[in-house]
Amino acid sequence: MWSFHRICVFFIALFVLGSCSSAKKIEALKPEPEDASPLIYDHKPSFISMPIALKIKDIENQTNKFLTGLVYEDNNIKDDNYTIKIWKQAPIVIENEKGRIKTVLPLKVNVQYRIGTDKLGVALYNTQEFNFNGVITLLSSVNLNNWKLNTKTKFESIVWKESPSVKAFGKNVPITYAINPAIQLFKSKIEKSIDQAIEQSMDFKPNVLDALDKLATPTEMSPEYETWLRVVPSELYATEAQLSGQNIVMQMGLKCTIETLIGQKPTKMFDKNKIVLKPVSKMPDNFATNIVAVSTYKDASKIITKNFEGQEFASGKRKVKVMNVNLWHKNDKIVIALDLTGSLTGTIYLTGLPKYNESKKEIYFENLDYAIDTKSSLIRTANWLASGVILKKMEESCRYSLQPNLEDGKKTMLKYLSNFSPMPGVFINGKMVDIGFKEVQLTNKAILAFLTVNGKVAVKIDGLE
Prior knowledge:
By secondary structure, the chain is an alpha+beta fold. It has a domain at 57-201: Bactericidal permeability-increasing protein, domain 1, CATH 3.15.10. The chain is built from 9 helices and 26 strands. Strands 2, 11, 12, 13, 14, 15, 16, 23, 24, 25 and 26 form an 11-stranded mixed beta sheet that branches. The relative contact order is 0.15. The model is unreliable at 1-21 (pLDDT under 50).
């Protein structure tokens, strides 16, 4: 009997101890999220000013590539007694001449000239062929129109290196006497050839659009935090082109929106066929960008869940762990649902206002407290958890830092400002200051942090292929 009594006492003790150590369950009412409408927010556009310097040497190189071989031909000898063919004999030289482009075009000329009469049906002609060289000088004004560098070229002068003559009917007839009047007829064609060569070789539109399209493709800043940078260009501005030393300079400006998004790779929002180049008289010499950091509640929940990994929150022998976190929007506040396991199982609900700590670069929740029904349930079932001590400890993990995202974003932007070359011969350089905070906004789907960046950027075109 004594042994049986001891055995009974042993099992009773196990039962009592087991009852004391079993977890209590909380069943608090869930604050239902508001209706999830589309994510719409007031995002102020950014303006990036880009001074551009284009080497005149590049215009020279591109024009020489475009304008080759035969530049003028007239094969009809009956109308004016000569035929003429003109070739570019040597590379064109282009330079700044008192605010205008001076083009020097070495030419080789082939002329067939006839002297004689056609009277009473009797043709008496003597036809001679000559080849000689000359240099034409042209002056051009410069402007930028519809993405193209345009020139308005005027014939300035022609200098013949030799002045041959022909002896016909006993007379010496200088051939230049016949050629110079012809110059008046074909000079407009030479002018047009130069203008067309510069316009077509200096058509920036395909290159600019390709560069913008590349810029608009979302860039992953941090695989760990699943953050992306998305730029959406909307308008492009340009001042008049001007000659300055051995450069053509102009100011260009880009209006765009810039976002950092958390989660899956966002879609590209740019249609290069819809952007328009707008002429302006002047622009500032710096850029001011407004960046919005978009944290959807789903993605913010994943980050905060990671913060709780490996942590226990204890009061005496009672302990709980947070296994999962969910966030949503309710009545202009954030609801934070914590799934607990340990001495208490179930879900508790916290509410608070998101704020931004500028020194730590993180989103935290001000006035974080238990939802009303959660607090009532904790007082009934787990008063030890209802105390502010454990809540304060949990509050430290209910935050997520934007610092890695901002640093990665800054590094990404600096890549575009450190001798970045979107195409051969084009180089972008600049500087930026620290990213500043403006405000936090709530939507039904995300927490938005609005930031600003200021700096300078310049584009140099040198060595176009």
